[in-house]
Structures are given as structure tokens and as C-alpha cells.
Amino acid sequence: MHNSIQHFNEFGVKKIEEIVRNFVSEKKDLADLVLGLRESLFELGRNIVTEVLEDMDEYLRNCAVRKKDWEIVRKDENGLLTSFGTIRYNRTYFKPKGEGSRRYLVDEIVGIEPHDRVSADVVINAIDEAIDNSYRKAGEQASYVDKLSKQAVMNKVHQIEVCEAPLKEQEKKEVRILYIEADEDHVALQQKGKKEENKKKQSISMPKLVYVHEGIDGEKSTPKRKVLKNVRYFGGDQNTEELWLQVAQYIDKQYKEETIETIYISGDGASWIRKGLEWINKSKFVLDNYHLNKYVTAATAHLNDEAMYHAVRDALDWPDKEMLKRVFKRILELTDSESKKEAVRNARRYMLNNWDGIEIKAEKGHEIIGCSAEGHVSHVFSDRLSSRPKGWSKLGAAQMSKLRIYKKNGGKVYDLVMAQKVKEQNEKKVQVQERIIKSLRNSSIKYENILNTRITAIDKGHKTGLYKELRNIIGRCG
Q1: N or C of the chain: less Cβ packing under 10 Å?
Q2: pLDDT score, position 81
Q3: Taking a C-beta distance cutoff of 8 angstroms, is the pair 464, 14 a contact?
Q4: Contact predicate 216/226, CB 8 Å
Q5: Which residue has the higher pLDDT, 431 or 245?
Q6: Least confident of 87-96, 272-281, 440-449, 456-465
Q7: Confidence class for position 402, pLDDT limits 50, 70, 90
Q8: Using 50, 70 and 90 to split pLDDT, how confident is the model at 271?
Q9: How many other CB atoms are found less than 10 A from the CB of residue 48?
Q10: How many CB atoms lie within 10 A of CB 350?
Q11: Within 10 Å of residue 301's Cβ, how many Cβ atoms?
Q12: Distance, CA of 314 to CA of 310 (rounded, Å)
């Protein structure tokens, strides 16, 4: 690293001085300065990484601790894509004097696997970008100089193990009411290998979304935008009972159950949503207005009669189940088309089957807030999974839905990638002897005085050529 910085100090700074001089004198846009500096700085980054790896390898070659247990076989070059671009470095192949396999010890120490072609920082960048954008764009953004193929990005997304984002350590909170809202997305899946006649029957994945919150956050909300308080997301393409178990465990960890009076579960009445009533203590179902209004419209729009529409609404608002049945009987009498009659029957069936979720609004309407599950599904899932025409693999859709939830909960992709690397290393039980690593960490190879290295271009109080050139340019402009 010392040599890289000295080389940059001697040659790189001159290049930067020229870039800055042209920027100021030619009155270019700021973007020209940034883009001009970028390559020089990335080159410095590549040189530093290369030198650090080769210095570590050189130390291992000369290390007395290493010589007791490992023999040198040969030296090989390796290429690795990093965020700075592709680096090429030389490292030594060692073989153990006893039993065991041959290894590149420096690679193992810094977490580079035998078949790795990209560094972990590129994997982190790629997955992080792929959560919000296409695999192609993620591959372009993963490294700032070179790029990763969209197939490689997809493979990284498929392979990452996604866990729950960590929770902040805190005492259990006391709340009187909690809210749970739930819905699902509809994601088109690829139809590889299907016969032509079956292509019309497009397969779909239906990742579930459940989120828990404490109601409207008055401090963060505005008249135009309501913000939910302390939201936590759950879901993906997973078993319903496992999903609700996660939700129940979260509530148990975060809240004092004895202070909770009611937990309102809002949704469209799907069986998997109602399953939450069996898992969540003190819970009551609320039918969300978005889906209810859709069925009211489906039952009355064809009549072009506002009286029938308001009659249905009155029956729901009272609420009066017998009145609703009479109104639907009259609607069926006024409907000629058999297909329209079927739509009316479906609407009636939907309302009656979810009557408990309608009725509770008359009793507890002052406590119940509007359900925003449809909008949350769009924001958390649809923006990436289903808003534009695309076909996902089942694994890809499942992984992406989990990653989207993980990130919404504040999780960092860095933590996922590093946790998986540690797990894989532990499973393989391939570790360099601790005394070699300890010796390397405590060594004084080139780095003990690195903080004393002077980069004249940025040395405080020193009138560098860059400083003088800028003063000359400013003087001429004046």
C-alpha cells in the first residue's frame, strides 16, 4: 500500500492537477470534474488492494510460523472483479506438511473462495441494486468500472440466504391497540418447456405480505400522506402457518400482551388472512374497504341506478344483514344477463361470508383505521415483481420478495452476504491455523508507518503545484 500511495503521489497527482486545471480554466460542468477524477481514484484503489494482497502473501512466504506446517508449491496469478474494477495479483500455493489439501492461504484469510471471480463487495452491490432494479442494471452498477452479467446477478440473488432483519434491543412496549394488515401480489412465472396449448394458462406466484403497526404516526404524517407508526413487514412465498407464527413471535417480543386490548387484522377476507385469527391472541377481523367497494360496484354498476347502490351501502353501514339480502334479491330481479347475475351472487356471497369484518366497523369504527394493504403490496412487491411485463422463476420470485421485505425492515445486504460466507466457512471447516493468522495480524509488514505517508497533493499547509496552479488560474480570471 505504501508503494501504491507513493506512485499515486508521484504520477496520479499530476494527472489530477491537469484535470482540475482544465476544469477551472475551461469552465466545464461539475460532472466533468467528477468523471475525470473517478478513473484516477479507482486506479489507486485497485493498486492498493493488489499491493495489500501481495504484501500479505509475501509475509506468509517468509513467516517462520508458516514454515513449520506449510511448504511452498508455486506462485499463481489470480483475477478478481472488485468495486474498483478488475484486479490481478500474485499469490502463493501452499501444501501442508501433514495431511490436508493445498491452498492459497492469503485467499483463505481474506475470504476469497477457490472459484470466486468477484469479491464480496461486488456481490453486495449487485444484490442491493437488484432489489430495486433489473438484473441487467444491477450488473452494470455492481462494479464502477467493469460489469457483471445479468445471469451472474440472478445466480447471486438465488443463492443468498435471507433471514429476518434484526430488531433493536428494547424493553417491551405498552400499547392498547395493534393493527395488522395483509394482502398478496400476483407474480407471473416463466413457462419454460410448456406445450403451446398450455401457455394461455399462465402460472403465477402469490407472495404474501403482512405488516404490523401501531396506527397513524401523527408526528410524521401530513394532510396528504399518512405514515404508519413502527411498521414491521413479514411475508414472501411461504407457508401460511409459518408466516403467522413469525408475526405472533414478533408481537410477543415487542409488546406487553397484558396491555393489549385488541389486535385488528385487516384484509380482503382470504382464508390465509383469516388464519391469523387462530394465531394472534385478542385479534378481530376487519374487511378492508378497498375490496368491499369493488364488490359493491360489481353488484350495482350494470343497473345504472344510484338507488340500488345506496341501498347496498345503507345495509352495510347499519349494518343489517337481512336488509342486505333483500336488496340483493331485488338487484337479481332487475338483472337480465346471466353473467351479470353470477357477478351479483359472487358479491353477495363475499359480503355475507365476511359479515363479521363488516359488522365490527359499526361497533369499533372509532378505533379502526383505513387498510392500506393494497398500496403496501404495490410498494413492497409490485414495483419490482409484477408492475412491468416479466416472467420470474419460482425461486427468483420467492427470493426477491424476501429481499424486498428484508430491506424494508432496515436490513443490510452486507450482513446477509457476510453471514453466509462465515456459515459456509464453518461448514467446510477449512480454516487457516490461528497462529498463522495471529502472526500476520501482529506483523509489521510495511503498514506500521503508513499513516505517516505524505500525499503532497493533500498535505495541509503545503503549497502544492495544484494549489499554485489554481491560484494562477484564479488570478487570470480576475
Answers
A1: C
A2: 95
A3: no
A4: yes
A5: 245
A6: 456-465
A7: very high
A8: very high
A9: 18
A10: 19
A11: 13
A12: 6
Q: Is the dihedral of CA 332, 337, 338, 344 positive or negative?
A: negative
Q: State the amino acid at position 272 in one-letter form.
A: W
What DSSP string describes 236-292?
ES--HHHHHHHHHHHHHHHB-GGG--EEEEEES--HHHHTHHHHSTTEEEEE-HHHH
Cell digits for 157?
A: 440473488
Angle at 162 (CA atoms; ends 398, 121), nearest 5 degrees: 115
Cell 385487516 locates to 266
Domain extent listing, the chain: 2-128+414-477, 177-409
> Over the stretch 15-50, which tens digit does the pLDDT of each residue have?
777 777 777 777 678 888 887 788 888 888 898 899
User: Is the C-alpha dihedral spanning 459, 463, 464, 467 positive or negative?
Assistant: positive
CA nearest 60: which of 72, 51, 50? 72
The owner of cell 446477509 is: 416
> Measured in Å, how far apart are the chain's first and last C-alpha atoms?
41
Place 429 in a pLDDT band, splitting at 50, 70 and 90: low
Contact 89, 63 (CB under 8 A): no
CA distance 6 to 18: 18
What percentage of residues in the chain have a pLDDT greater than 70?
A: 85
Inter-residue contact 237 to 187 (CB < 8 Å): no
The pLDDT tens digits for 377-390 are 999 999 999 887 67
